[in-house]
Design goal:
The complex is a heterodimer.
Chain A: E1 3-9, H1 20-34, E2 44-47, H2 58-66, E3 72-75, H3 82-95, E4 101-109, H4 116-124, H5 139-154, H6 158-172, H7 186-191, E5 194-196, E6 199-200, E7 209-217, E8 226-235, H8 249-262, E9 271-274, H9 279-288, H10 297-302, H11 319-323, H12 328-343, E10 356-363, E11 368-376
Parallel strand pairs in A: 2-3, 2-4, 9-10
Antiparallel strand pairs in A: 1-7, 4-7, 5-6, 8-11, 10-11
Helix pairs in contact in A: 1-2, 5-9, 6-9
Chain B: E1 4-8, E2 15-16, E3 32-36, E4 39-48, E5 62-69, E6 74-79, E7 88-94, E8 97-102
Parallel strand pairs in B: 6-8
Antiparallel strand pairs in B: 1-2, 1-3, 4-5, 4-7, 5-6, 7-8
Classes of the chains: A alpha/beta, B mainly beta.
The structure holds zinc ion.
Zinc ion (ZN) is lined by residues 9, 11-12, 14, 23, 25-26, 28 of chain B.
Amino acid sequence: MAHITGVAVTAFGKHAGRGPVDLMETAALAAIGDADLPREAVDGLVSGYATTYPHLMMGTVVAERLGLKPKHAHEARCGGATGAMAIVLARHLIAAGACRHVLVVGGENRLTGQSRDDAVKTLAGVGHPEHEVPLGASIPAYYALLAARYLHEAGATERDLAELAVLMRRHAATHSGAQLTKPITVDDVMASKPIAAPLKFLDCCPISDGAAAVIVSADPSPRAAIRLAGWGEAHTHQHISEMPDDLGLGAKVAARQAFETAGRKPSEIRLAGIYDSFTPTLAIFLEALGLAPAGGAGKAARDGRFGRDGALPLNLHGGLLSYGHCGVAGFLAHVVEVVRQMRGEAGDRQVRDPALAYLHADGGVLSSHVGLVLERAA
Amino acid sequence: MSGIALLKCRSCGHHWQFRRAACPVCAAIEPEAVAVAGGGTVWSVTTVHRAPLPEWDVPGGYAIALVTLDEGVRVMCRAESGLAIGEPVRVTLRDGLPHAART
Ligand SMILES: [Zn+2]
């Protein structure tokens, strides 16, 4: 059994002068405090990586900074899925009896620690060095290719995708830590500058500084028993050239395993935290997971399904699209929001009684997937 | 020929593009390098307005397509502008890069 016993996230945006280890330290200390644990109780650590500080041993660097002497520490790397995968690894360490309390932490000064050109260039490197990168493809270009294919297959429109950006901005406006809070409309998204057709600037998440941390423990916290009931992974390909024809395949495989290990059904979930690096990422996942009808994610958003008072509240902190994206901590922020909601600690954003939640992240170009089912004990 | 080279499994006949020593379908080793004609259809296409390197930026952007070759292999190409998904194309090498154009 593994439980989420502590969570913390910093504001996302600019943290000028603070490096990845500084940011991770802030989030880690806050999460250990949130779990009400003495520091020495943390006996495992899985850190994320930082593109602004590509150290060979980030896990050890973070352990040293925090003054931890863990039985296990290492750095996980799986792109945007890293945070979710680190939580699965923490669960496995606990199930193996190797650790009792595992700190999962990510943080990076991705916005202020490098030039925007450097960030775009580094991220484009997930493409194939011989057959993709030399063609001038960027991360937005890979997702634009997915978006164009999605729109073609699903019969959805660019305005439908824009609804998801509008929704995330509306949610971010209710969170003091969000990077982008100015309200936007579908017309604003449509009129924003083209990045890689059909993606416009407001279809893409921002680049941020920030950090987040999660404590995974063998036993539940006395204040709320949030159990990691199910987990699943899929690794269908790395490069878009070799991805399966079914855009949603990896998401479906990971989710099926997550729900099977939890013994629950997707129709039972009452809260979702879904990776939303670009509007099509979110649409493809919502539809592949059966949380919206095929081609209908944008319409469902417009109709209120994913709002605080809707049938399936989604990314209530504003997601990557508006809370922000600083690498590994980007998706950990989704986890933090879901856990706070399940504990009933989300203040003005609080949804009614979310006892079962699903979290899903991908890394690469829909390449690696991790799904998590969280359950609050009665 | 198109100048496009693929690998072909000598055991099951599966084609692929990326360097690898064994067939991803049947695991047979020692695939054969084959030159192909370059015919295919557009699987997806985009116009990149913001290049990963500023020196690659061109006014109006440049098109990148994923083309499913007749051998069943999806390859990334530069492309002529205005291509649509499903359109038949021929892929050839242009300045050393695969380039998709209407047939
Ligand atoms: Zn074979």
